[in-house]
Please model this.
Amino acid sequence: MMRKDIRLPFMATALLGALLVAVPQAQAKPGPKTSHELHVQAQSSLDVAPDMARLNARLWERTPAVARSEKGSDAQALGDAREQLESRTGDLIRALEDAGVESNDIQAGSLNVRPEIISRSQQNDDAEDQVRTQVERPVSVTIRDLERLPSILDALTAAGVDALDGVEYDLKDRDAATDKALSKALERARHKAQLMADTLEVSLGDVVNIEETQSPSYAPRTMMMRAESADAKSAPEYRAGEIAIDAGVNVTWEIED
Model:
């Protein structure tokens, strides 16, 4: 007669008991702590007075107008125009240096040569189209002392520049100005967060996230030349105005329980 193995029921009972003990322990494990956060968006605008400027002037000479069929005879006239232009450019550079501009702050650009067609509509119906050649050189001046601006403009005028494309005001230290604008935006965000926390009677915890919504940047301020004076005999005044730098941030704080 075969004997029954009593070990199987015993092992099953022991395994069931272990599961019953393990399940309550797993259920009793606490879940992750729920955090409460405060999100703040802040903008800042910083107005900075410029401390330097750039001037862009142009000099040009033109050859006499000739009929288009005679364009090949313009070579000598073109050489004469270029020689005259180079002489005027040299005089302008020396005048700027005499006005206190450093040599490395004067940049004379490359020669530009282009033809100009004078159509019959500008003369009469029977005339042939004419052509002339313009040779041009740009000159850029960096002004590191704005008090010298009037005398430098006088030097440009005395040198007979053909075009002066206004004044571009800028900052010597751009990084310092944009850093200040960003700091101002962050301070504004902290002020807003503290104001809301105090009003709602909660406490701010650690900062958990920071991001820029607007990177601090600006464009140099370009202004056409404008002289303002009380009367015709007084010295002209050139008003630079201010450069606006904007910045924006998003900051998130934990709210302490």
Summary: DSSP finds four helices and ten strands in the chain. The CA atoms of residues 109 and 189 lie 47 Å apart. Residues 19-23, 226-234 have pLDDT under 50 and may be disordered. The first helix runs from residue 7 to 27.
